[in-house]
Amino acid sequence: MSNKAQDWPEGVARHVLERTDSTMMEAARLAPQLAGPAWILALEQTAARGRRGRAWQHPKGNFSATLVIRPWQGVEQAALYSFVAALALDEALAQVAGPHARLSIKWPNDVLLNGGKIAGILLESLGAGGQISHLAIGIGVNLREAPDPGALEPGAMAPVSLRGETGTDIPPTDFLPYLARAFAKYQAQFESYGFAPIRTAWLARAARLGETVTARTTLETVEGRFETINESGAMVLATSAGPRAIAAADIFF
Ligand SMILES: O=C(O)CCCC[C@@H]1SC[C@@H]2NC(=O)N[C@@H]21
After folding, report:
1. CATH number at residue 58
2. Of all protein residues, whose CA lies closest to atom 10 belonging to ligand 1?
3. Predicted complex ipTM
């Protein structure tokens, strides 16, 4: 594991907080004053949130951070940063987890370790008057402890922790440079060459590609074979009624 201070990506600010409500809220408060991209890491969060309005548990020792950036293009491109973030997470975790860790990415933006959920990503756009000024990319990683499965929704993916699965015990402040470097690498790729190379890399890491999955949207439940993701990042399922592109859903295996 290399974790030298000089390995921090150039031009990116870093704020480390002992405690806050949520790094997403901290990001919204800080964004107007930021001169460039910034990571906001909190050692404790009192009101952390997950996707679809769910609460996110943050046991002590786990990683919780939000990266604030100015998105490269419009609203549609902004959503694709979740794939950039998932690849970065996968790479950073592979670097610290050791050779036996089985990492994969679950559409749209969870990272799995040995089949359980180790990390989640939450994207929020910040701005006023319909204009996105900043993108807040929130990342939670169960570094030390898996949250209590009893507090999760029925059918939710079983949570695991890095320490529980691999024995690696890395503090959040030490994990951050791995993630920041990996994110800067994939961000540069995305902003130079577009979504195509990110999509290819993402598909190579995708969990259950080619297998039958169930997608639960707010309106319906769709079952089908996970064929690919399209150029907008939607999951494409081969269903009995033909191909379906799903833009947002919870996926069950
Ligand atoms: O539902 C998910 O899987 C996404 C979870 C995102 C949690 C992170 S922790 C850091 C940031 N601050 C928050 O309040 N949420 C995100």
Report:
1. 3.30.930.10
2. 64
3. 0.99
